[in-house]
Design goal:
The complex is a heterodimer of chains A (116) and B (113).
Chain A (H helix, E strand, L loop, with lengths): L3 E4 L2 E4 L5 E7 L5 E8 L3 E8 L6 E2 L6 E4 L5 E6 L8 E8 L11 E2 L3 E5 L1
Parallel strand pairs in A: 2-11
Antiparallel strand pairs in A: 1-3, 3-8, 4-5, 4-9, 5-6, 7-8, 9-10, 9-11
Chain B lengths: L4 E3 L2 E5 L4 E6 L5 E9 L6 E6 L5 E4 L2 E6 L4 E6 L8 E9 L7 E2 L3 E6 L1
Parallel strand pairs in B: 2-11
Antiparallel strand pairs in B: 1-3, 3-8, 4-5, 4-9, 6-7, 7-8, 9-10, 9-11
The chains are: A mainly beta (116), B mainly beta (113).
Chain lengths: 116, 113
């Protein structure tokens, strides 16, 4: 039982390049989230999904796209990377409400992205 | 309060001493309050999830209380140990149905041996 995994762990991009971050969970969770973590800013929600085939915008969605084609996977795409997207990206998952967990989040190990 | 606010931002505590810090959150449409422990180079892990006014939860030397009417939660650590050094995040769910947490910026705790 791996929990939440993220690939890659590290990546360096040039401005304008594109990439996709993959998040996978094996806990059969309905909800999945992408956050970015910047110094002094805490965790900020980029996009989230409440089930397979659904996505929704979070607090800082601009410059990112997401897809949830399979329940266990949540992909975060950067179409044209910018230096402002240099950050550590965390994926998380949780059960749906009504299951008693009240959205307790299980986090992946993070992806450190640098855009030069 | 519109956002989730934590204080202090950082704290240095002598090993063996007890300490506490605060999380303030919007009290309207409150649904749940989470505490996470985040060690350097790792990912956040849930400590407590609290939902009811007056809730008190305990895990070993760490405990938390919740006041949903006034919108605050305290995290207490008794007899601090070096392994308690971490950033402690709180996060609030309000407006049930939005399906997303709002995180504070954390309290960075350093235990001095």
């Amino acid at each position: 039982n791996a929990g939440v995994t993220q690939t890659p762990k590290f990546r360096v991009l040039k401005t304008g390049q594109s990439m996709t971050l993959l998040c996978a969970q094996d806990m059969n969770h309905e909800y999945m989230y992408w956050y970015r973590q910047d110094p002094g800013m805490g965790l900020r929600l980029i996009h989230y999904s409440v089930g397979e085939g659904t996505t929704a915008k979070g607090e800082v969605p601009d410059g990112y796209n997401v897809s949830r084609l399979k329940k266990q996977n949540f992909l975060l795409g950067l179409e044209s990377a910018a230096p402002s997207q240099t950050s550590v990206y965390f994926c998380a998952s949780s059960t749906a409400p009504g299951s008693g967990s009240f959205y307790e989040q299980y986090f992946g190990p993070g992806t450190r992205l640098t855009v030069t | 309060i519109l956002n989730v606010e934590q204080s202090p931002q950082s704290l240095h505590v002598q090993e063996g001493d007890s300490t506490n810090f605060t999380c303030s959150f919007p009290s309207s449409n409150f649904y749940a309050l989470h505490w996470y422990r985040w060690e350097t180079a790792k990912s956040p892990e849930a400590l407590f999830v609290m939902t009811l006014n007056g809730d008190e939860k305990k895990k070993g030397r760490i405990s938390a209380t919740l006041n949903t009417k006034e919108g605050y939660s305290y995290l207490y650590i008794k007899g601090s140990q070096p392994e308690d050094s971490a950033t402690y995040l709180c996060a609030s769910f309000s407006n049930f149905g939005n399906e997303k947490l709002t995180f504070g910026t954390g309290t960075r705790l350093t235990i001095i041996p």
